[in-house]
Structures are given as structure tokens and as C-alpha cells.
Amino acid sequence: MWYRWAADAVVVVHFAFVLFVVLGGLLVLRWPRLAWVHVPIAIYGALIEFAGFICPLTPLEQWLRHRGGEAGYTGGFVEHHIVALIYPAGLTRPIQIGLGLFVLVLNGIVYGVLIRRRAAR
Predict the structure, then answer these.
(1) pLDDT tens per residue across span 110-120
(2) CA–CA separation, 96 and 80 (whole Å)
(3) What is the C-alpha to C-alpha distance for residues 45 and 99, in angstroms, rounded to an integer?
(4) pTM
């Protein structure tokens, strides 16, 4: 039972990480010093999508599920939990690249606004 709860906790942390990768730039508009944390995390998140590798939290979750007597799943966290919510079909390479580009463009816009604000001061 403990393993199942731990696996669910990993999913929550993983989802929060993904949200921070995608939307953390918006928090930087309010708290600019957060950029020191967000920029490397956003780059890492985009690289995961571009390179097509699996975040270390995914195997941890799968291991915990197996230890808890649940069947694991194939693929990565994004494919299993997030894409399953957004897209009815499985994660494809073009979707991964699109997700990576979305992260870069969205955060590029946010950081552009932040830089303009600083320059205007």
C-alpha cells in the first residue's frame, strides 16, 4: 500500500515539475529571482522532449508501482499521464518536438517581457 501512495506522490511531483517547466516563466514575472531556478529547469524539460529521453521520475514511479503490486506502463510520464489527458492517440515524435517548442516559445515570450520591463526601468 505504501508503494502505491509513494508512486502517486511521484506523479504529483512530476506533474508539478511539468507545470513549472511550462508555466514557471509566468511566476518569474512576479518574482524575477525565480528565473535562476526556472531557466535551467525549463531547458532540461525542453531537452527531455527534443532528445526523446525519459525523466528519472518515470522509472521511479514505475518501480514503486511494481513494488506495490500494480502493473507498470510503457513510455514516459508525459505520454502516460499528460498526453493521455490531452490527446487521445499516443505520444509521437512530432508531438514531443511540438511540446518542446511550445515550452521554448512560451517562456521566450515571458522572458522577453521581463527583459523589456527591466530595460524600461
Answers:
(1) 899 988 988 88
(2) 13
(3) 10
(4) 0.69
